[in-house]
Each structure stands twice: as structure tokens, then as C-alpha cells.
Amino acid sequence: MDDQVKRKRGGQLTYDRETAHAICVRLAKGETLKGICRDDGFPPEGTVRRWARENVDGFATRYAFARQLGLDAMADELLEIADDGSGDFVIDANGNRIPDHEHISRSRLRIDARKWYLAKLAPKRYGDRLGVRVGGQAENPVAAIIKW
Q1: Can you give the CATH number for the domain in which 110 is found?
Q2: For residue 47, is it within any domain?
Q3: Inside any domain, residue 2
């Protein structure tokens, strides 16, 4: 398909600064590129990735920064999911309040998926690694503990 041809869903294939800005704003809020590009008026996901890869109009820097902000938004969302117990219980036919295990499991899955994603994309900020340097500028915390 030629880049100058308009998509039937309404999204353009040629770079547009306003559209690129709208994409970055939504990425910074934690939305996925795939989800954004499904909406009418937005280009296909591959087109946006090409804009970033080719750094069209300096888009690569704005795109990367928006992605980083999106990771922070996702980290914030983790806490909201964990703290939201509104669907954790249901009322049965007898009026008893019982745990909704399906809802609790779905919340756990949402948290785990986001934790995995964050750890993979930003391991220094969101990974589980213990930052121990041996021979570096920072003192080895294990050695500091066993020094008497």
C-alpha cells in the first residue's frame, strides 16, 4: 500500500504532527500503541513505529519519552489495582458476603502482567534485581554487612 493512500478507517499514513502529538499524549497516560491505533483517525501501528524508527520530524525522542511516562503511569496503575477491593466480594442468594475469586484472580493477573512488562522494559527501575557492584564505586552491601 502506498504511504500517500488514506486508510478506510480514517487514519493517515503520512506523518502529521498533531496526530503524532495525540499519540504521545495517550502513550504517556499508559495506553498501548495497538489500542490507540485501533481508534478511527489514527494511523496503523506499523506506520507509527516507522515514524519513530525513521525519526520523522524528531518523533523518535517524543515517542521514547512518552513510552517512559507510560511506564510510570502503569506503575501507578498497579497500586490502584492492588488497592481497589470494590469487586472482591459479592452477595449470594442468601444475602451473605462472599469472596469473588474470579475478580480477585483477574486483579492478580492484571498486576502480574504489568509487573512483568515493567521489569522487562525498564529493569533498572522496575526489575527485581539487587544492585550489587563488586569492584565498582559503590561499596558491596553484602561486604558492608559482614564487616565488623
Answers
A1: 1.10.10.60
A2: yes
A3: no
* Residue 60 falls inside a structural domain: yes
pLDDT tens per residue, range 43-80 = 999 999 999 999 999 999 999 999 999 999 999 999 99
Question: What is the total count of domains within the chain?
Answer: 1
C-alpha cell at 115: 509487573
Domain containing 36 equals 17-124
pLDDT in tens, 101-117: 999 999 999 999 999 99
Enter the pTM of the model: 0.72
Classify residue 100: in a domain, yes or no.
yes
Question: Buried b / exposed e across 102-132, counting CB within 10 Å, b at 16+?
Answer: eeeeebeeeeeebbeebeeebeeebeeeeee
